[in-house]
Amino acid sequence: MEDLDRQEILDDVSYLIEAKQAPKLRAIMLDAYPADIADLLTHMEGDYRHYLFAALDRHTAADTILEVDESTRQELIEAWDEHQLAGLVREMNSDDAADFISELSPELAAKVLKLFEPEESAEVRQLLAHEEDTAGGIMALELVAMAQDSTVEEAINEIRKKADEIETINHVYVTGEDRRLVGIVPLKKLLLAEAYTHLSAIMNRDVISVLVGTDQEEVAKLARKYDLLSVPVVDAQGRLVGRITYDDIVDVMQEEVAEDISHMAGIASAEDMRDSSIIRTVRLRMPWLVIGLFGGLVAAWVLSFFEHRLQDNILVLMFFVPVVMAMGGNAGIQSSTIVVHGLATGSIDVGDMFRRLLKEMRVAFMNGFLCGALIWVIITIFWRSPEFGFLVGASLLCVMFIAALVGASVPLLLKRFDVDPAIATGPFITISNDILGLFIYMAISTMYFWYWQ
């Protein structure tokens, strides 16, 4: 929604709210997309927001509350009781219902689930039993599954029967004994087949599926690699238990990208851009800042360690500390970002560690040599000191080489130990390279002034 359009709509909606025209608001919002209504809600003041949300019909409200940001959703939830919330949950698919209930307090979630029929609450509890970031945690239970000896006509009738229950149907899942997944039939193939044809004759037997415990990031990679609209989920025995649709896969991709960017910036992934709580934001950002502070103190200690050794030359050396540290940081960030991106997209595997490191070492050496040669030329021309230019150039080469090696190797090592490699970028690389860069620069300078002068 464009800013100008949003402001115009906000003015019109605010006018209707002030006039207490709830029926008109409900009628207008029936034709609006839930994402657009959510966008309006996040840009409205508290009382106006609550009035608009309360004016929505139940189905629209259920779709809309899933689209708003976390802080707005919590505010809307706090204004409703368990009966109203239960009405919203009944309008949601099972995966959305489980996600929504998981955000409620344990006491409120228990009250909401008590208002459901045992069969309905059992579905939600089944999904809540899985880890949040796994295939089981994001799957939906609504799907069309047929026995392999069923006919095309029976499958189409089943689709018609479940049309209101299932929002999107791309495949019919074919099961064998004990509900084991044996194949899938794309909707197009189903519509083109003769009515009397058995599903076993037209199904694709090479099924790409995931286990309930598979990490959601791996599910997203699989869907991206094979261009899947939905991914069936099976248990350890191969029995079909649910499916993950493309909208949930897109959400996972967005969530993982946001999490990686947060790690790269040294910000907790739980931070919400629209969260108005200053204390919460400070608490989320402080850990990396404190680590950076101590990293800076270590760098200061490195400088003080070499102070008496370089007492007569420390001033001229300090002129080039920003250059050495900045170039080392840039080289490290470049290498770490490339490796983290490759690991995230699957283009780099942990098995490629040595080949990847060898390439980064070659690139770092070439870049360091060229930058070192350039700084030597500049110092020789403007400072008329080729020896000192060689000192700074050699330091720059070593610092950039080590920084790139650290930047490339740390993400690969973290990935090998199942730790998110994104934390190796941003503040981590900056802190480590500041300390290493200063130490290398000062160590080379010490050797130069002690042994060659």
Give a brief description.
This protein has 453 residues and is mainly alpha-helical.
Word description of this protein:
The chain is mostly helical and 453 residues long. The protein folds into three domains: 3-133, Alpha Horseshoe (MgtE N-terminal fold), CATH 1.25.60; 145-265, CBS-domain, CATH 3.10.580; 278-451, SLC41 divalent cation transporters, integral membrane domain (Tetracycline Repressor, domain 2). The protein is 66% helix and 6% strand. The chain is built from 22 helices and six strands. Strands 1-2-3 form a three-stranded mixed sheet. It has a three-stranded mixed sheet with strand order 4-5-6. Helix 7 (82-90) packs across helix 9 (106-114), helix 8 (94-102) crosses helix 10 and helix 19 packs across helix 22 (427-451).
Give the arrangement of secondary structure elements.
Blueprint: H1 3-18, H2 22-30, H3 34-42, H4 46-55, H5 58-65, H6 70-78, H7 82-90, H8 94-102, H9 106-114, H10 118-128, H11 135-138, E1 145-147, H12 152-161, E2 171-175, E3 181-186, H13 187-192, H14 199-202, E4 210-211, H15 216-226, E5 230-234, E6 240-245, H16 246-265, H17 278-307, H18 314-318, H19 321-345, H20 353-382, H21 386-416, H22 427-451
Parallel strand pairs: 1-2, 4-5
Antiparallel strand pairs: 2-3, 5-6
Write out key terms for the chains shown:
453 residues, mainly alpha, MgtE N-terminal fold, CBS-domain, Tetracycline Repressor, domain 2, three-stranded mixed sheet, 6 strands
Give the uncertain stretches in residue-range form. none
Cα(first) to Cα(last) distance is 68 Å
Looking at CATH, the homologous superfamily of the largest domain is SLC41 divalent cation transporters, integral membrane domain
Number of domains: 3
Task: Report the total helices.
Answer: 22
| Count of individual beta strands | 6
Biggest β-sheet: strands ordered side by side in the sheet: 1-2-3
- State the helical fraction: 55-70%
